């Protein structure tokens, strides 16, 4: 654990996730259980109160995405991180995957649509394609307490409704240590990049 104490709910989540990693079980099982544990963390009223101090995440593409992330914690042994972001009303992420990272996206406040996409069968995101057509396969309205479990290379997006969305994100490794894809429907091009800017911030 880090020197500066965090919210108790966050510290408990970290301890549980570290225990899962120490058991050397399948990653899918680790992150399935972690999604349940994150739901418990999201219930903490102190987390919602603390989020009032978080800055709105700057976005390089305005309301269209590449939102920076706050960085609360990076585990020294297992490499997982806890991030957060606040997106403005009507903001949209790009259509993207998270590369080889496992990701949990938990909504603290606000509401948004969570979308899933797929490429044609002859395109594999792991090959880092230059072009790819993507097709929307699902769209779900979500609110506080919802945790989206995003497996490696799953293509998705989040579209805000008419209010800001506050989210906590848990990743298997820090952005910048792996490559991921952004899919542009306007011309079917695919951009590779190393994920959102990381802004250190204390959760406590």
Write up what this structure looks like.
The chain is of the alpha+beta class and 204 residues long. It has one domain: Sandwich (Jelly Rolls). The chain is 19% helix and 34% strand. It has helices at residues 8-22, 27-42, 45-51, and strands at residues 69-74, 81-87, 95-96, 103-109, 112-119, 134-142, 147-150, 155-160, 165-171, 180-184, 189-193, 198-200. The strands form three sheets. It has a six-stranded mixed β-sheet with strand order 7-4-9-2-1-12. It has a three-stranded antiparallel β-sheet with strand order 3-10-11, with no helix packed on it. Strand 1 and strand 2 form a beta hairpin. 36% of the residues are buried. The model has no long low-confidence stretch (mean pLDDT 93).
Please describe the topology of this protein.
Layout: H1 8-22, H2 27-42, H3 45-51, E1 69-74, E2 81-87, E3 95-96, E4 103-109, E5 112-119, E6 134-142, E7 147-150, E8 155-160, E9 165-171, E10 180-184, E11 189-193, E12 198-200
Parallel strand pairs: 1-12
Antiparallel strand pairs: 1-2, 2-9, 3-10, 4-7, 4-9, 5-6, 5-8, 10-11
Helix pairs in contact: 1-2
Q: Tell me about the biggest sheet?
A: 6 strands, mixed
CATH fold-level assignment: Jelly Rolls
Strand content: 25-35%
**Rg on CA atoms, Å:** 16 Å
How would the global form be characterised? globular
Write down the secondary-structure element order.
HHHEEEEEEEEEEEE
Count of DSSP H/I helices: 3
CATH architecture: Sandwich
Q: Residue-averaged pLDDT, rounded?
A: 93
Overall number of strands: 12
What helical percentage do the residues reach?
10-25%
Read across the widest sheet, the strand sequence of neighbours is 7-4-9-2-1-12
CATH homologous superfamily identity: Jelly Rolls
CATH C-level class: Mainly Beta
- N- to C-terminal separation? 13 Å
Structural class: alpha+beta
Residue stretches low in confidence (pLDDT < 50, at least 5 long) are: none
Total count of domains: 1
